[in-house]
Amino acid sequence: LSNFSLDAAALDSEGRCVILEFPALVLIGVYCPANRDESREEFRIGFLDALDARVRNLVAMGKRVFLTGDLNIIREKMDTAYGDEQLKKHGMTGEEYLSTPAMRMLNQLLVGGRVIGQKDDEEDPAIMWDICRAFHPNREGMFTCWDTKKNARPGNFGSRIDYVLCSLDCYNWFRESNIQEGLMGSDHCPVYAILKEKVEINGSEVDVRDIFSAGMFTGGIRQREWCTKDLLPLSGRLIPEFDRRQSIRDMFSQRSRQPKIGSCSSEIEASGLHTIQEPLQERSILPSVSDNLEKPNDVAPRPPQTPKEVSLAISRPNHPPKRPTVANGISTPPQKRNKIGEFAKRTMPRGKGQPGKTQSSIIGFFKPETLNAIDQEASQLCDSNPEPSAPNARAADVVHITPSEQDYVIDSTASKEGWSKILGKRQPPLCEHGEPCISYLTKKAGLNCGRSFYMCAKPLGPSGQKEKNTEWRCGTFIWSSDWMGNRK
C-alpha cells in the first residue's frame, strides 16, 4: 500500500470489501467502484490495485482464494451490449478499449484474458479462473446487469460485470456454473457455481466435506458434532466486546418473572398500610347532559350495579373527611372557565387542623355521597344555561322567488366536463404500436433539465436502438409542452 496514492483508511472508508478466511479457503466479496466520472477515477484505480495486490499475496501464501461480487469491469467486448456505443462515444478502437486500466488489470489477473501488448509486470502471472465463462466460453448475451431506467432487461441489453473467480489450485472443483437471469428483484442477477462432491487433490479424490471441515468429516462421514472449540480465531464471539454476552436465543428462552403475592402483602403490612375492602360502583363520575335536562332536581343516586370487591392499600388520614354541603335551590351564575376546578375545590375533603394541606383519602373518591355532590353541581350548571329559543321569523323578511325571476339552472354534468378539461389528467399520446406512451422527466444537466416528454412504453430491444415495425421500443418522442391532448 505504500506505493498507492491513497492510504488504506481512504480505500476502506466505503466498506466495499469483505474478506472471510476459513481453514480451507479465503472468500472475498467485493463491490468495486463504477466508472461514473473522472472525479472518482483515482479512487477506483486505487481500489482495484489494492484488490489485485491482496489477491496475489494470498495466492503466494498458498491460500485457496475465491473472488466474487460486482467488479464493475467488462472483461471483453462480448460481455457488453454497449461495446459499439462506447467506442463511438469515446472515439476509441477495440484495442484501445481493452487497454483501459481496469480492463487491463482484470485480464492480467485471469487465465485466458486478452492483454494488448506486453504485461505490466512479467513476474505476475495469471492466477485466477473465470468459472462461469469457462463453462460457456462462446456464449453471447450472458449479461448480469441491465439499466432498469430504460427497461433494458426484457430485451437483454446489458453487461456482464458480476463474477465468480477462483485460484488455479481449485479450478476443477466445480461441476456447473451459470447466471440466473430470470430471478428478479434487482438490476443485477445472481451468478452461481456448484462444487463437486469429490474433488481431486494431489492425484487422489477427496470428499469436499473433508476439505472444508477437516477433522469433523472423514470420507464424507461426520465423526463428531460441532462445539465452541471449533470457532475460528477471528470469530466475532471471541472479540472482547462480544464475549459472554447474551445471544438471540436467550431473548426467546427466558421467562418473565412475576411478582409473588405473598411478598407484596408482607411489604404492605411492614409499611403500616391497611387494606380496606369497599364495594365499587361501576358508574361515570358526571351524568350525561340528557339526564340533567330531563330531571334537573333529581339528585337520587343511581341503582348500583354488581359490586366488586376492590382491595386498596391506603393510609387513613388523621381526621375523617367532611362531606361538602350544597345549598339546594340556589343557582349560581354560569362560569366559562375552571368548571371542573370548582368541583374539585368544593368536593375536596379537608381536615380540621390544617385546611388545604391534608391529603384526601383515596376512599373518598369511591363513596356515593361524593359522587352525588358532583351530580348536583352538574345539574345546577345545566339549569343555569338554558337552551336559546329560536328567533321568530317575521313575514316581512320572507322573500318569495317566482320561477320567472330565476336566472338559469346549472347543469352539473356540463360543469364537471368543463372542469375536467382544465384540471383533469391529460391523456398521453399513442406510439407507433397504437399504445399509450409513458411520461419521463429529463434529469440530465443542460437546457432541457426538468422538462418532461413522452416515449414508447415498450422495452428497449437487443440492439439498444429504437426500432420500427418490431415488438421493441419504437422511435416515438414528444415533448409534453408540444402535446395538446384531451384531458380525462
Automatic annotation (TrEMBL):
- Renumbered residue ranges of the record's region Disordered: 290-337
Asked if Transmembrane helix is a keyword of the record, the answer is no
Cofactor annotation: Mg(2+); Mn(2+)
Residues annotated as site: Transition state stabilizer:
N72
Biological processes per GO annotation: base-excision repair
Q: What InterPro entries does the record tag this protein with? A: AP_endonuc_1, AP_endonuclease_F1_CS, Endo/exonu/phosph_ase_sf, Endo/exonuclease/phosphatase, Znf_GRF
Statement: the UniProt record of this protein carries the keyword RNA-binding: no
Coiled-coil annotation reads none
How the cofactor is bound: the record states:
Probably binds two magnesium or manganese ions per subunit.
Q: Which domain of life is it from?
A: Eukaryota
- Site positions for Important for catalytic activity: D162
The GRF-type domain sits at 431-483
GO molecular function terms noted in the UniProt entry:
DNA binding; DNA-(apurinic or apyrimidinic site) endonuclease activity; double-stranded DNA 3'-5' DNA exonuclease activity; phosphoric diester hydrolase activity; zinc ion binding
Print the keywords alphabetically: Hydrolase, Magnesium, Manganese, Metal-binding, Nucleus, Zinc, Zinc-finger
Q: Give me the residues that bind Mg(2+), please.
A: D70, N72, D187, H188
What positions does UniProt annotate as the active site of this protein? Y31, D70 (proton donor/acceptor), H188 (proton acceptor)
PROSITE patterns documented for this protein = AP_NUCLEASE_F1_3, AP_NUCLEASE_F1_4, ZF_GRF
GO CC term (a single one) = nucleus
Protein family per UniProt: Belongs to the DNA repair enzymes AP/ExoA family.
Q: What is this protein called?
A: DNA-(apurinic or apyrimidinic site) endonuclease 2
